[in-house]
């Protein structure tokens, strides 16, 4: 575990000293800030015109939509951020450094995942500052906000594991990003057909990401949803570990 | 690789000699733990590295043919990471980085980004990362490859200086390099160990003849028969 943490800190440092992760981060925060201000403007206008007789809450009207948009952006952003984690190392022939360090394939994958997850948690924390800026000006539903942030954290965890796995199967970061995006897309749409056929509680629905992210982001924290995110994360980390292990027998 | 058995003692430099595709890099990658052998084992002080990878982590330093560097980091920062990865704590890592920067003559570039360094400096950073945790065994895959004559000379001097504290195994296809750096050479061909010889000063011609004979005999059976 110590080796994984050292590797995670190193991954963080490598992201920190490059321009493109900061540009992606800045771009996403700028888009979300614009959405936040736009929703806030609409919220204030509605309050002025109705005298808050509709009993609208800032958590539901302003914070939740912004955090919801972050979830959508994460689906696109994480494949890009994670695409180089292992593929880039293989391409630069620097994976040998880790393979020869005797730290274990699982520790390598865990370190890569933790480093990426740290960066994503920074993005979530920066976004959370937007609704937090409303504290003291209007009542906020802190329970729902906490559930929202939990949902985003779990989503980031699963998407980071998928990105690291995709990055372990190729030496081309662009292909890794495309594969991770494809897996994300499949997880989001796997039950579309079932829903169209009015099947809403089948196994296929359970497989779909929105079936678990939706309730969590609405404030309903159920263990089944937590387990789903945990399973997806563990599954893709295990697959990535297996993939890295297979590199030891390929020459 | 097949039927390969080698031993190395502390203070000794062993050179793996062979033409391209002989199996030098594969052998070194197995010793370093990058590749897992189908059969057989690598023992360090009698302990199997397959069963105790942690020993390898601390006991082996490896410089692959293509130097594994993180171009976006400064030299000292990268070496510190390598030291920590091999199990050194922060304080010990600081001291080790300072020592290797001194030994590998990297002082003037310690704060520069690795990606901006010349090939010679990058190779030295590669050697420094292999030495930073003071391993008992240093594995160097064509350490002088791609260097100009002056840089090659410095590299050979550096390798010779490692003898004092480490066992060194290196691969090369340059006989002159083997003669200068190595105490023994092992000639590989088509994945098999063909010959092991002690290197004596001024023996380049004999080694060259031996090396070419082994390669030619096996590459051209008809010529060998004639």
Structural write-up:
Chain B: InterPro entries: AAA+_ATPase, ABC_transporter-like_ATP-bd, P-loop_NTPase. Chain B: Residues 1-215 form the ABC transporter domain. Chain B: It comes from Tahibacter aquaticus. Chain B: GO terms for molecular function: ATP binding; ATP hydrolysis activity. The complex is a heterodimer of chains A (251) and B (226). In chain A, helix 3 (58-82) packs parallel to helix 7 (142-168) and helix 11 (210-217) packs across helix 12. Chain A has one domain (2-247). The mean pLDDT of chain A is 89. Chain A has 251 residues and is mainly α. Chain A has helices spanning 2-16, 19-50, 58-82, 87-91, 95-99, 105-132, 142-168, 173-189, 192-196, 203-207, 210-217, 223-247. By secondary structure, chain B is an alpha/beta fold. Chain B has a domain at 13-68 and 136-225: 3-Layer(aba) Sandwich (Rossmann fold), CATH 3.40.50. Chain B has nine helices and eight strands. The longest helix of chain B is centred in the last third of the chain and has 16 residues, at 204-219. Chain B is globular, with a radius of gyration of 18 Å. The model of chain B has no long low-confidence stretch (mean pLDDT 86). Chain A binds chain B through residues 3, 6-7, 10, 13-14, 17-18, 92-104, 248-249, 251, and chain B through 26, 29, 32-36, 38, 49, 53-58, 60, 62, 64, 66-73, 77, 81-82, 84-87, 129.
């Amino acid at each position: 575990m110590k080796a994984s943490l050292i590797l995670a800190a190193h991954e963080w440092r490598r992201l920190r000293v490059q321009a493109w992760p900061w540009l992606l981060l800045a771009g996403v925060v700028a888009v979300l800030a614009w959405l936040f201000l736009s929703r806030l403007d609409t919220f204030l206008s509605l309050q002025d015109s109705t005298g808050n007789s509709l009993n609208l809450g800032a958590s539901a009207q302003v914070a939740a939509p912004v955090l919801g948009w972050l979830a959508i952006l994460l689906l696109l952003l994480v494949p890009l951020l994670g695409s180089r984690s292992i593929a880039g190392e293989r391409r630069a022939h620097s994976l040998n450094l880790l393979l020869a360090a005797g730290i274990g394939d699982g520790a390598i994958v865990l370190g890569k995942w933790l480093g990426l997850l740290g960066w994503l948690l920074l993005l979530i924390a920066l976004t959370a500052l937007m609704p937090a800026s409303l504290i003291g000006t209007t009542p906020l539903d802190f329970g729902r906000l906490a559930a929202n942030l939990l949902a985003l954290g779990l989503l980031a965890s699963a998407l980071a594991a998928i990105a690291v796995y995709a990055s372990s199967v190729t030496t081309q970061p662009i292909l890794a990003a495309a594969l991770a995006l494809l897996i994300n897309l499949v997880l989001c749409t796997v039950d579309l057909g079932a829903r169209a056929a009015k099947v809403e509680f089948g196994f296929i629905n359970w497989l779909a990401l929105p079936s678990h992210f939706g309730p969590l982001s609405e404030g309903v924290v159920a263990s089944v949803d937590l387990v789903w995110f945990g399973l997806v994360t563990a599954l893709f980390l295990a697959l990535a570990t297996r993939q890295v292990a297979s590199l030891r027998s390929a020459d | 690789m097949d039927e390969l058995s080698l031993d190395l003692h502390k203070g000794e430099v062993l050179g793996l000699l062979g033409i391209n595709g002989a199996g030098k890099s594969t052998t070194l990658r197995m010793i370093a733990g990058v590749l897992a052998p189908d059969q057989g084992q690598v023992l360090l002080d009698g302990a199997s590295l397959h069963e105790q990878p942690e020993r390898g982590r601390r006991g082996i330093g490896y410089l692959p043919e293509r130097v594994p560097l993180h171009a976006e980091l400064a030299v000292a920062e990268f070496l510190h990471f390598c030291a920590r990865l091999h199990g050194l704590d922060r304080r010990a890592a600081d001291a080790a980085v300072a020592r290797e920067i001194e030994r590998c003559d990297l002082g003037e570039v310690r704060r520069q980004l690795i990606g901006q360094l010349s090939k010679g400096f990058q190779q030295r950073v590669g050697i420094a990362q292999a030495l930073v945790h003071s391993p008992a065994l240093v594995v160097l895959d064509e350490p002088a490859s791609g260097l100009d004559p002056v840089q090659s000379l410095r590299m050979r001097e550096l390798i010779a200086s490692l003898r004092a504290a480490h066992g060194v195994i290196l691969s090369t296809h340059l006989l002159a390099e083997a003669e200068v750096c190595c105490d023994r050479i092992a000639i590989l061909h088509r994945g098999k160990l063909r010959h092991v010889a002690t290197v004596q000063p001024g023996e380049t011609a004999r080694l060259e003849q031996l090396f070419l004979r082994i390669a030619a005999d096996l590459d051209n059976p008809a010529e060998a028969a004639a």
